[in-house]
Design a protein that fits this description.
16 helices, alpha/beta, eight-stranded mixed beta sheet, 464 residues, TIM Barrel, binds zinc ion, six-stranded parallel beta sheet
Length: 464
C-alpha cells in the first residue's frame, strides 16, 4: 500500500513535508518524494491531507473487568481509534481485581478477551494492600507484562488503596531495579482530608447545598505541590523512575522537571479552569479538579518546552446515573477523554501555534513511546516502524459530540467544542481501524470502525 503525496509529520523536521509512504504488511518500508506503485498495489491519495504518527494515550481507565458499565475495552479502544489514538496504556486500578499480581493480570487479560481495536499496553499497580503483602515479588512477576507501575497517595477506591510516603519510596526503588517507571497520583492526603472536612462543614453551617467551589477547594492546588515534593524526596537517587500523572499546577511541574522525574498533564487542565464549573457542572468533575485561571497558560508553556513530557487523557467516563447524583461530593470524578486528546492538541496546540511540530509529536506519542519501552516500533513515522498513522483533513472541522465518541460514557466537558481539522482515517499496523467515510454513510458512528474486535495487540516493554 502507498499513502501518496500527503504532508507528513516526519521526526526531527520543523514543518510537514510532502512524501509517499509505502506500507508492507504492518510496517513502513519506505518514505520518499515519489514511490511508483507496483501492479495491483493499493494507493491512498493523501494529497489534501496531513499524515501524523498515531497518537499514544498512556493514561486510560477501561475498567475491565468489574466496572464495565462505565467503560470496557471494546468501547474504549473504538473511542481511541476515532480520535487518532493507535496505542493506549490502561491503568491497573479501576478493574476488579486490580492489576496488582500476576494472577490478577491474567484474569484481566482473560476478561478483555479479543475486544480491542487499537494496540494496548498495561500498567501494573501498587496499592496499600500490595505493600503489606509481597511488594517485591508481585512487582517482579508483573514486570514482563507491564510497562510501568501506578500508585496513589490518596485513593477513593477500597479495592485499590493509597500508599504512604515510605511505601512509595520502596515502590520507586523496586520499579527502578525492574527498569520500569513508577507512576504517581500526587495529591497529599494531609491537605485533602482536612480540606474536604472543612468544605463539607462549611456548606452545612451555612445551610446551603455544597457548590463546585467547595469541591475544588477540597482538593487545593497546594495538595499537588506538597505531594510532588514528598514523592521526589522519597525517590532519593531514583527520581528518573518517577512519573507524576495528571499534573495541573505549574509549581508541581517545575519541581518535577528540576528533579529529573517526568510528568504529564491532560487536556482538561489546558482547556478549562475552576470558573468553568458554573457552566459545565459535573461534566467537568475530575480528580484532581481543574485549576485556577492562569495555570493553563503555564502548562502549555511547559508542554512546549518539554518540562511536561506529554499529554494523556485520563479517560475515565461514567454513565449519567453516576455523573449526576445530585451531590457534588458523590458525582463521579472522571470524564471520557481518549477521543478528544489528539483533536484538541492538534487544533489548540499545533494549529494554534502553542506547540511546534516537534513538540506536538513529542506530546502526542513520541515521548510516551520512549518512556514506556515502545519506541522500537511506535511513536514516529520512519522506515521499520509500525504503520500507525492518522490522516487529517486540515480544512475540516471536528465538532465534539459526546453521543458520537463511541465510548460508553458520553458526558464530556468538551461537548460542542469546535476544533479545526478532522480525522479521516486511523491506521494501526497498516490496517484501517477508523474510516470517517464509513461513519458518514450509515449515520451510525460505530460504522466508522472498520477493524474487527481483537485486532488490537498487547504490547510489552521493548516491543519491536
Ligand atoms: Zn487516572
Amino acid at each position: 500500500m502507498i499513502i501518496r503525496n500527503g504532508l507528513c509529520a516526519l521526526p526531527g523536521l520543523d514543518a510537514l513535508e510532502r512524501r509517499d509512504i509505502r506500507v508492507e504488511g504492518e510496517t513502513i518500508v519506505s518514505i520518499a518524494a515519489s514511490i511508483a506503485p507496483s501492479p495491483g498495489e493499493t494507493v491512498i491519495d493523501a494529497s489534501c491531507l496531513e499524515v501524523f504518527p498515531g497518537a499514544i494515550d498512556p493514561h486510560v481507565h477501561f475498567d475491565e473487568p468489574g466496572f464495565t458499565h462505565r467503560e470496557d475495552f471494546h468501547h474504549g479502544t473504538m473511542a481511541a481509534a476515532r480520535g487518532g489514538v493507535t496505542t493506549v496504556i490502561d491503568m491497573p486500578c479501576t478493574s476488579l481485581p486490580p492489576v496488582t499480581t500476576a494472577a490478577n493480570l491474567r484474569e484481566k487479560l482473560a476478561a478483555m478477551g479479543d475486544s480491542g481495536v487499537v494496540d494496548y499496553a498495561l500498567f501494573g499497580g501498587v496499592s496499600g494492600h500490595s505493600l503489606a503483602e509481597s511488594l517485591d515479588r508481585n512487582m517482579a512477576e508483573l514486570a514482563p507484562d507491564v510497562v510501568g507501575f501506578k500508585c496513589y497517595l490518596i485513593s477513593g477506591m477500597e479495592s485499590f488503596t493509597a500508599v504512604d510516603i515510605p511505601g512509595l519510596g520502596r515502590a520507586i526503588a523496586k520499579a527502578s531495579t525492574l527498569g520500569r517507571p513508577l507512576l504517581l497520583h500526587a495529591e497529599d492526603p494531609a491537605v485533602v482530608v482536612p480540606a474536604t472536612e472543612t468544605m463539607k462543614a462549611r456548606s452545612a453551617t451555612e445551610g446551603r447545598k455544597a457548590s463546585w467551589d467547595d469541591y475544588v477547594d477540597s482538593r487545593p492546588e497546594s495538595a499537588e505541590v506538597s505531594a510532588v515534593a514528598a514523592a521526589i524526596a522519597s525517590a532519593k537517587g531514583n527520581a528518573t523512575s518517577l512519573h507524576v500523572v495528571h499534573v495541573g499546577t505549574a509549581e508541581a511541574a517545575r519541581l518535577v522537571a528540576a528533579s529529573g522525574a517526568t510528568c504529564e498533564t491532560a487536556p482538561h487542565y489546558l482547556a478549562f479552569c475552576r470558573d468553568d464549573f458554573s457552566s459545565k457542572g459535573s461534566a467537568l468533575k475530575t480528580a484532581p479538579p481543574v485549576k485556577s485561571r492562569g495555570q493553563a497558560d503555564l502548562l502549555w508553556q511547559f508542554l512546549a518546552s518539554g518540562a511536561i513530557l506529554y499529554c494523556a487523557s485520563d479517560h475515565a467516563p461514567a454513565p449519567a446515573s453516576e455523573k449526576n447524583t445530585g451531590s457534588i461530593w458523590t458525582d463521579y470524578g472522571g470524564i471520557p477523554g481518549t477521543g478528544t486528546l489528539f483533536p484538541y492538541l492538534y487544533a489548540q496546540g499545533y494549529k494554534a501555534g502553542r506547540l511546534t511540530l516537534r513538540a506536538f509529536l513529542r506530546v502526542t506519542g513520541g515521548a510516551a513511546a520512549a518512556r514506556f519501552g515502545l519506541s522500537g516500533r511506535k511513536g514516529s513515522i520512519a522506515v521499520g516502524m509500525d504503520a500507525d498513522l492518522v490522516l487529517v483533513d486540515p480544512r475540516g472541522e471536528y465538532r465534539v459530540r459526546g453521543s458520537e465518541l463511541l465510548s460508553k460514557g458520553n458526558i464530556t466537558p468538551f461537548e460542542g467544542m469546535r476544533l479545526s481539522g478532522s480525522i479521516l482515517h486511523t491506521l494501526v499496523r497498516g490496517r484501517a481501524v477508523w474510516d470517517a467515510r464509513e461513519a458518514d454513510k450509515g449515520g451510525n458512528a460505530v460504522a466508522g470502525i472498520v477493524a474487527r474486535a481483537g485486532y488490537g495487540k498487547h504490547l510489552r516493554w521493548g516491543y519491536r
